[in-house]
Amino acid sequence: MKTYSAKPGEITRDWYLVDAEGKTLGRLATQIADTLRGKRKPQYTPHVDTGDFVVVVNAEKIQVTGNKLDQKRYYRHSGYPGGLRSRTLREQLERRPTEVLRVAVKGMLPKNRLARQQITKLKIYAGPEHPHEAQNPRPLELEQ
User: Fold this and answer.
1) Choosing a second label site near 1 at 20 to 30 A (CA), which of 90, 100, 104, 114?
2) Domain coordinates of the chain in residue numbers?
């Protein structure tokens, strides 16, 4: 019996829609990361991008547990000495709510070229509107 390996030309990509309103950040991010990698498909191959497109709406209404709104921090560095800046999760949700989910999903993908290719299939929108109606995205079944 031969081991199956997906070829790039054989892959069919579906579009999924996720409403993030009221969902827990980390639990939602793991399921989105699995969908982007293709782990929900039987033809999953680790070294080939077999994943699907994911459209996330209402990213600004995502929930977290505990005191993370005030204790979790997002760091960035300008590249200059003393250039480390940080924001709390609450400030980040006010300024750039899409980046909160993008950073969470990106941290759950492998750190290589393939992951950079997979994160481009993630489309995040702060409000309920998105421009991907033509692709007919189906709702993603999330495990509870």
Assistant:
1) 114
2) 13-64+98-135
Mean pLDDT across the chain:
95
Give residue-wise pLDDT tens across range 14-39. 999 999 999 999 999 999 999 999 99
pTM for the model: 0.94
Angle between helices 97-106 and 25-37 (to 10 degrees): 60
CA distance 29 to 31: 6
Confidence of residue 112 (pLDDT cuts 50, 70, 90): very high
Beta-ladder partners of 53: 15
Hey, which CATH number is domain 13-64+98-135, 3.90.1180.10, 3.40.50.300, 3.90.870.10, 3.30.1330.60? 3.90.1180.10
d(CA 36, CA 101): 14
Q: How far apart are CA 75 and CA 21, in angstroms?
A: 25
Q: Beta strand 73-77 with 53-57: parallel, antiparallel or unpaired?
A: unpaired
pLDDT band of residue 142 (cuts 50, 70, 90) is: confident
**CB neighbour burial string for 69-96, b if at least 16 within 10 angstroms, e if fewer:** eeebeeeeeeeeeeeeeebebeebbeeb
